[in-house]
Each structure stands twice: as structure tokens, then as C-alpha cells.
Amino acid sequence: xxxxxxxxxxxxxxDGPGIRVVIYAQGCPHGCAGxxxxxxxxxxxxxxxDIEQVLQMILAVPIAQGVTFSGGEPFAQxxxxxxLGRILKLHELDIITYTGYVWETLTNSSSASWNDLLSLxxxxxxxxxxxxxxxxxxAFRGSRNQRIIDVAQxxxxxxxxxxNDTYDSRKDARLL
Length: 176
Ligand code: SF4
Hints:
alpha/beta; TIM Barrel; seven-stranded mixed β-sheet; 6 helices; 22% strand; binds iron/sulfur cluster
């Protein structure tokens, strides 16, 4: 199975807690006005990678504490991202997934691959980017409508458990 990717960042500190490898999915159906990564929208753009190839690039960054699936839209390639995610879990790397879909859309879907990718994700940052809600002070997200969701807690309680405040206050503390 292959992943179509826009790129990989080996050491990021802005795409979730800790030092993370970021895998950028190529292809996005959401078309948010003001998107920072319009080059990731074309589902035929980017480059195809074998999952094993992507895994080796991730494991070549021993300092990484986790992996972030960003985009583009990772859920547009959910089967392949879930496959990669299963292997990353075996290597004890946690997964953060960005999506332009909201939690409610993902959890109301009958797609097995969406469910797989969701359940492998530790934190989900959900929702499209809204230019009129843009806030550069937010931790790990671009606009105020987007939520940092604790996936395990949310699945257990059958509703999104939003933990934005935890990360925003941590960011504030660093800035003081
Ligand atoms: S979901 Fe993300 S990548 Fe897709 S258009 Fe919106 S901001 Fe851009």
C-alpha cells in the first residue's frame, strides 16, 4: 500500500506536544479559504511512497517523541495512514492527526478505515480552517473553531472531550 504525500518534516515542535515527525498527506477536499498549504490540495500531486519507506524515514529520527499526520487530509487516505499508524504503535510512537472533518462527521461515518485511523490517534485536531477565526496565539491549531480532542476519552464517553485549554495554557506559560 502506498501513501501520497506532500512532504515530511523530521523535527517539528509546533504540530503537537514534543518533538514530532510530521507526515503531510497530499490531497484535500475541504478548500478552506486562507489555507496555508494550498499545494497539498491536488489529489494527484505530491509523490507516492511505500509505507515501509515512510516508516524508515520516521525511525531515522530517534529524537522524535511521536508522529503527526497532517495535510492535506489524512482521512482521504485513511486506510494507508491507519496501516502506518498500526506499525508506529508497535514502535511506541503516539499519533496526532489533523483533519478538516469534524469529530461528529468522522464518528457518524460507517467507514472502517476512518474508524481505524481515529482509534489509532491519541489527539485529533479537527475542523476546517476559518480565516475569520484565525488566532496565531493558539497552540497547535490555526483557528478558534478547531479542537484538540482526546480520542480515547471521547470514544469512551461517546462525545468529543476537548482539551484545548490544557495546551493553550502551556503555551502561555512558555511565553511568560
Ligand atoms: S483542511 Fe487543512 S489542508 Fe485542507 S484546505 Fe483546510 S486548512 Fe487546507
